[in-house]
Amino acid sequence: MRGLRVNPAWRIVGRRLRNAVPVLAIVAVGSYALLALAPGDAVDAYLSGGGGGDASYIAELREQWGLDRSFGTRLLSYLLSLLTLDFGWSVAFSLPVRQVVLDRLGNTLLLMSAAIALSFSLGTVLGVVAGARPGSWRDRVLSLISLALYAAPGFWLGLMMIVAFAVKLSWFPLGGIGTIGAPLDGLARVRDMVWHLVLPASALGLVYLALYLRLMRAGMVEAWRSDFVRTARAKGLARSRIVWRHVARNALLPVVTMLGLQAGAMLGGSVVIESVFAIPGLGRLAYEAVGQRDVPLLLGIILAGTVMVILINLLVDLAYARLDPRVVTR
Fold first, then answer.
1. Which tens digits make up the pLDDT trace of 162-203?
2. What pLDDT does 54 receive?
3. What average pLDDT does this structure show over 301-314?
4. Are 159 and 287 spatial neighbours (Cβ–Cβ below 8 Å)?
5. What is the dihedral sign for C-alpha 38, 41, 46, 47?
6. Distance between CA atoms of 106 and 189, rounded to whole angstroms?
7. Domain 108-275+304-321 belongs to what topology?
8. In whole numbers, what is the pLDDT of the chain averaged over residues?
9. In whole angstroms, how far apart are CA 64 and each of 52, 84, 202?
10. How far is Cα 9 from Cα 14, in angstroms, rounded to an integer?
11. Using CA atoms, how far apart are residues 146 and 208, in angstroms rounded to an integer?
């Protein structure tokens, strides 16, 4: 009797989740070691901010925050606490790290989701337009625009958008995730958040839009030389059908792969964009944690970012398996 057949998607999920365990362990140990062995600590940051004190007070603070113990003892205690999903205590906010991170996580997820949706969808479509007729004027113009966007830093794009669309034209707000003090609820609140996310999501997504456009265009140029395209032409299929059903689908595979690889880079880019647009997300929180030398909080942010990247890559693997079922057997 044959065993039950496992859904290929579940096989991918199980394999990726098994690989996620050692990845999280390496990130946790490596990040803790780098941050704990760096010169200075939270007490030094607190004293430099105006909260001075004598030697006895400094020793009391280090004992209270657990900084007087050896590195090995602190590391072991931290790893054991992670097993119970206890990420420690934020000395900067005087709150549990898990609560502080969860309060900011939603804003970063909104920003990244909007930026990914913009860059991937629009970049893919424009790449199809450019690659449908390689060497045409549309191909040349779009390639030139994508090169200019890819060369522009994200923070510069954000600042230019603020000057043009927020200061000069007053089309969009200067920053933030919502109108402060506005009694909005339901659909009105959603519209307000979307309106505030237009500029930061565009600044974060335009650089990657250029990357996906160029990848899609290059993949289509390569696919036009394939035997299956010549066969489709010999059968008399319409050019539009060949472009969308055959050439574009095969060219989409490397673009989907790059989407997973760029997830970590986009998360890092959100640190700058959130600071430029004053968005209270993980990126801005990481900047504050570094300034306060809040090691538990910074570790919590790093682990939350790692989990986000793992989940994004899992979704990319599922999408890749949908486009090319052969990856399930690899």
1. 899 988 888 888 888 877 766 667 787 788 888 888 899 888
2. 60
3. 85
4. no
5. negative
6. 15
7. MetI-like fold (1.10.3720)
8. 78
9. 16, 22, 44
10. 9
11. 9
CB 128 within 8 A of CB 243: yes
Give the pLDDT of residue 4.
46
Over residues 315-327, the pLDDT tens digits come to 877 777 776 666 5
d(CA 216, CA 32): 39
- Claim: this prediction has a pTM higher than 0.85: no
Token duo for residue 164:
């043009």
Give the pair of three-digit tokens for residue 194: 């979307």
From residue 199, how far is each of 185, 255, 279 by CA, in Å?
Answer: 22, 24, 11
- Would you say 318 and 7 are in contact if contact means Cβ atoms under 8 Å apart? no
Residue whose tokens read 């760029």: 262
11-18 — which CB contacts under 8 Å span 24+ positions?
11/328, 12/314, 12/317, 12/318, 12/321, 12/328, 13/314, 13/318, 16/310, 16/313, 16/314, 16/317, 17/314
- Own/partner pairs, 2-9, CB within 8 angstroms, 24+ separation: 8/321, 8/325, 8/328, 9/318, 9/321
Residue 47: which pLDDT band, with cuts at 50, 70 and 90?
A: low
Give the DSSP H/E element, type plus range, for residue 96: strand 95-96
**Looking at this protein, which amino acid is placed at residue 210?**
A
Q: Which amino acid is at 218?
A: A
Which among 278, 320, 297 is positioned nearest to 111, based on CA atoms?
278
**Residue 295: its H or E element:** helix 295-323
d(CA 276, CA 202): 13
DSSP letters, 192-216, are: HHHHHHHHHHHHHHHHHHHHHHHHH
The domain limits of the chain are: 108-275+304-321
